[in-house]
């Protein structure tokens, strides 16, 4: 029997699932400015471009624009939709045109956070211990910009729990700088935070229990796409459906990006250091129909 040519041999060794990768490998991923969204979008851009030959465009748009553009086919996928509550209003007008796929992160969090060494566990306990959380001369909760959803919820929490603390609003960077300083010195401090967030990988933290449910229930993060994406690229659909991250992995990715100050280099370094996990995501076989 004649030997196969090197080209034919190479083709013979390609897994069957590879033939189900989209022939048109240009892909537009819709992003927004959330830290975890930028982190995972850049991670997938690197993996798909450098290892599978895709041409990935990251399109950073507002939420309203993202859903409209995806419904019109101008954006192919986006890595993050919070359900069943947070993003449902954005999804609802386009439910017939978009596809929500499998979850990749379970148990989002939102609320008031303290270092684990702080000896209270609930929001109501802040009332009796308010003086311990003094910031710049007054009992305070450190938050992010006043126009954010979490800032509004914190104003509600102060009112409903009748907390003798005021909310001090600033940028996320300024809030975390103040938190880091207090943490290093094991001082009491309370901040508004959410998970996933890189801080949970860097510090030992805890949410204060919210018995009135001001900050809502935990949600789940899914990826989603234009309605016909799965038929156009069944391989990538299965890969993303098998992708899962938790506080350690996602927080670690965001922490590296935060440390390096560059989402591309941070994501690349994280990939190199977590190759086994990444290879598990990519090792899928898709049956042709």
From TrEMBL:
Enumerate the SUPFAM superfamilies for this protein. Answer: Periplasmic binding protein-like II (SSF53850)
* Name of the protein: Glycine/betaine ABC transporter
- As given in the record, the signal peptide range reads 1-22
Tell me a GO biological process for this protein: choline transport
Q: Which domain of life is it from?
A: Bacteria
Q: Per the annotation, which location comes first and is thus the protein's main one?
A: membrane
Which keywords, in A-to-Z order, does the entry hold?
Answer: Cell membrane, Membrane, Signal, Transport
Q: Which organism is it from?
A: Halomonas salipaludis
